[in-house]
Specification:
Bound molecules: flavin mononucleotide
Helix content: 25-40%
Order of helices and strands: EEEHHEEEHEHEEEEEHEHHEHEHEHEHH
Largest sheet: 8 strands, parallel
Shape: globular
Strand order of the largest sheet: 16-15-14-13-8-7-6-17
CATH architecture of the largest domain: Alpha-Beta Barrel
Strand content: 15-25%
CATH class of the largest domain: Alpha Beta
Number of helices: 12
Number of strands: 17
Length: about 425
């Protein structure tokens, strides 16, 4: 293969363009000496429409067209588990605290998610699988018939707009307060160690409560609750679930040595701290099919008082290959910035990799897909503020600014009233 075509340098890689059969292709090297180019090339070949490595033999390097590889890459369709995505953007999970008191999605939830269906893969706000799992006021649940009926209206709206719905299953663990749960009991956690965070309650901010260390029976019950929640999501018409293993909540607490001081099979070593997540993901995959299950991880994310410390790489170098064996539909990484670890995930993970890079700019949005480090780039705040975020990004149109004052709780303001492009 000839490689002396035009070369564009990006932040994370060198991308070269070649023309074959009248079509421009890009291939890349993720820096030098990383050992990753082969992965990227293989990945690119597997995912680029019309790509046929044999075409490269007939390279026509004199007849190159200029076009934006950014647009080209992000607009490629992709199969994730059982769903077909129209492009590589998605909606990241975002808590909005507008559910009814019993955890049934609020009356505007179907409109809000339905408006955003053109994002393709719509991942919902964190939804508790049980009363114990609730951390904040007015978050939705996915464990009663009323919850299922409420989520069905959301699934129908997203499907009507051509999107697919993944309900995020979130157990807050110690990031909770008895004021916020239906039973007002102390939160559950791997160990009785406070998160020491301010929690929003109906009476204003209060410190997160001292949690109760989970017994083996609590662990068994929590895994059963996730199973039931996943089955409930499917009963509601969702296309799948995302297990929330990130951002300082229960699963992340098990991984973290400063939140998990257990001396049984669920604490101590890297293997033991990973056990709860692996058992839980195995159970959820068994319940609804691995190809309808994704998981979110955030290595090194210091949220909720979590400090993973020096062992963070070892932790995830064990966990991710173990989860990879389950053949889940996707891994969603909320990425703090350890690119070496991310490249290892890419090599170890057999299915779709979603990457949300903290602090990326609009210009950087496509880099990880271009460079083969990610398959899908979920959008958080831009999806919140732009019902038509994908169209805007693909057409280089301006984006509405999100208003943090209306992120959590409230009514239609800052929820269903962000204008689409035609009305902006
Ligand atoms: C209002 C708000 C609520 C969020 N809630 C969740 C959540 O429930 N679960 C989760 O995994 N991440 C949550 N996140 C994080 C987002 O999924 C996303 O990773 C983050 O906003 C970074 O992406 P962005 O820069 O595109 O906004 C939330 C973010 C925002 C802004």
């Amino acid at each position: 293969m000839s490689t002396n075509a035009s070369t564009t340098s990006y932040q994370h890689a060198t991308t070269k363009t070649v023309t074959a059969g009248g079509v421009d292709y890009a291939y890349g090297e993720l820096g030098t000496g990383t050992g990753v180019p082969v992965v990227f090339l293989t990945h690119l070949a597997a995912n680029l429409d019309n790509w046929d490595p044999r075409l490269v033999d007939g390279l026509n390097l004199t007849n190159q067209r200029n076009f934006s590889m950014t647009t080209k890459h992000l607009q490629q369709p992709l199969t994730v588990g059982r769903v077909e995505l129209p492009h590589r953007l998605a909606m990241a999970p975002m808590t909005r605290n507008r559910a009814q008191r019993d955890g049934t999605p609020g009356p505007l939830a179907a409109a809000y998610y339905g408006q955003r269906a053109s994002l393709g893969m719509v991942i919902t706000e964190g939804s508790q699988p049980s009363g114990d799992g609730q951390g904040y006021p007015n978050t939705p649940g996915i464990y009663t018939q009323a919850h299922i009926d409420g989520w069905r209206t959301v699934a129908d709206a997203v499907h009507a707009g051509g999107g697919s719905l993944f309900i995020q299953l979130m157990h807050a663990g110690r990031m909770s307060h008895p004021d916020n749960t239906p039973h007002h009991r102390p939160p559950l956690a791997p160990s009785a160690i406070k998160a020491n965070q301010d929690m929003y309650t109906a009476d204003g901010a209060k410190k997160s409560a001292l949690p109760r260390e989970m017994s083996l029976e609590d662990i068994r019950q929590t895994i059963a609750d996730f199973r039931h929640a996943a089955a409930s999501a499917i009963a509601a018409g969702a296309d799948g679930v995302e297990i929330h293993g990130a951002n300082g909540y229960l699963l992340h607490q098990f991984l973290s040595p400063n939140a998990n001081h257990r001396t049984d099979a669920y604490g101590g070593s890297v293997e033991n701290r990973s056990r709860f997540i692996i058992e839980l993901a195995t159970a959820v995959a068994d319940e609804i099919g691995a190809d309808r299950v994704g998981i979110r991880l955030s290595p090194g994310m210091p949220l909720g008082g979590i400090q993973e410390g020096d062992g963070v790489r070892d932790q995830y170098r064990h966990l991710v290959p173990e989860l990879a064996k389950l053949n889940l539909a996707f891994l969603d990484v909320f990425h703090v910035g350890d690119d070496e670890l991310l490249r290892e995930f890419r090599a170890a993970w057999p299915t779709a990799l979603l990457v949300v890079r903290v602090g990326r700019s609009r210009e950087e949005l496509a880099h990880d897909v271009e460079n083969g480090l990610a398959d899908v780039v979920p959008l958080g705040r831009w999806a919140l503020a732009n019902p038509d975020a994908a169209e805007r990004i693909f057409s280089d149109a301006p984006l509405n600014e999100p208003d943090p004052a209306t992120f959590y709780g409230g009514d239609a303001t800052g929820y269903t009233d962000y204008p689409a492009l035609a009305r902006a």
